[in-house]
Amino acid sequence: MKIICAVQPRDFASVKTDPRLRELEFGIWEGKDIVAMHEARDYPHGQAGHYEWKPQGGESYHDGVERVDAFLRGVTGPSLIVSHGAVARCLIAYVCNIPRIDITHLPTPQGCYCVLENGKHQWFDASHNPV
Q1: Per-residue b/e over 55-77, b at no fewer than 16 CB within 10 Å?
Q2: Rounded alpha-carbon distances, angstroms, from residue 83 to 56, 90, 103, 110
Q3: Each residue of 58-111: pLDDT tens digit?
Q4: I want to staple 23 with a disulfide (CB 3.0 to 4.6 A). Which of 37, 76, 84, 110 is the partner?
Q5: Averaged over 8-32, what is the pLDDT?
Q6: Rounded (10°) angle between helices 85-96 and 61-72
């Protein structure tokens, strides 16, 4: 966020944090290899199950959308929101009214930013080129 503030320019002291935008909790899979998680016996292999799937001790995308809903209800104007990939998917799906079944497969390109406007989303790279 300090880098973003320096480029904007924005006063870093004006940055507000909100726990509802923290990354989804992956429970027993936190910090472990994603390939191993995808190979786990209880991991849903059809797209339909991903939205509701909750790893032991973790959260589902459904939980993430509920957190995002609570956060966005308090947003009153244009905002710069910084988050990790899973929460970014929840934000994009919520704002753009994307079917919940598609949330887990939304791209979140690394090192890019997404503009959400008029029910649509567009990713840009650091040079502001569409991705």
Answers
A1: beeebbbeebbebbeebeeeeee
A2: 23, 10, 15, 12
A3: 999 999 999 999 999 999 988 999 999 999 999 999 999 999 889 988 999 998
A4: 84
A5: 92
A6: 60
